[in-house]
Amino acid sequence: MRTKIVAGNWKMNKNLQETKELLAELSAKLPDTDADVIVAPTFVNLQAAKTALQDSTIQVAAQNMHFAENGAYTGEISADMLLSLGVDVVILGHSERRSYFGEDDALLAKKVKTAIEKDMKIIFCFGEELEDRKSGNHFALVESQLKNALFDLEANAWNKIVLAYEPVWAIGTGETASPEQAQEMHAFIRKTIADAYNSSIAEGVSILYGGSVKPANAAEIFSKPDVDGGLIGGASLVATDFTDIIKAI
Ligand code: 13P
Questions:
Q1: Is any ligand 1 atom within 6 A of the Cβ of residue 212?
Q2: Which residue, 132, 163, 160, 130, is CA-closest to 146?
Q3: From the CA of 108, how far away is ligand 1's center (Å)?
Q4: 123-144 residue pLDDT tens
């Protein structure tokens, strides 16, 4: 049985006070669920989030981290800094990091390697741009993103990996991949992993869908056999929307 996961990527939203308020509301409204529930506030509010959630089952993730142990990397955050706050889950490879901050597969491979060495759980994001889908290149592109950043990992690292397929054309646009498009890609991802490793790794890895998931469309997307949950942006900033999405899994 794969782990079901609903994760909220808050991106650059919510100041300290707003973070505390949203987490208090979320904790109060959290439905009974078998799914892992994760929130990823901005770096400066991670400690407050850990404190606010100390008696909660909700986990806290970082939205990014640097690959280096420490050193002269002004403005960056290391794995040890996160771990020292008790944060052992990190989102890597988000399309906004790739497109606005120039993070490519080679850099992401280094970040993944560091996170695995530090025994962190990784939510690894990837997905095609609209042009790739229009030109029919989306499967090849996704395969190359996985191969370049993840396929040098030892087999036993895969129990620390969660995949998040986020087609860029569906992020923050209101445009969702249809449940069929999500299922088709998730099945392809699983087959790609089975070919590169083996079927037990492929069957064990949780693959989340991200891109305009809302209470109104979550149940149908989550009903697909290869969709194990969601990585939620905008709707994770509203407690009732996020909890309704959790109820849909
Ligand atoms: P939206 O849910 O706002 O489309 O964002 C998805 C996303 O990028 C989550 O990481």
A1: yes
A2: 163
A3: 19
A4: 999 999 999 999 999 999 999 9
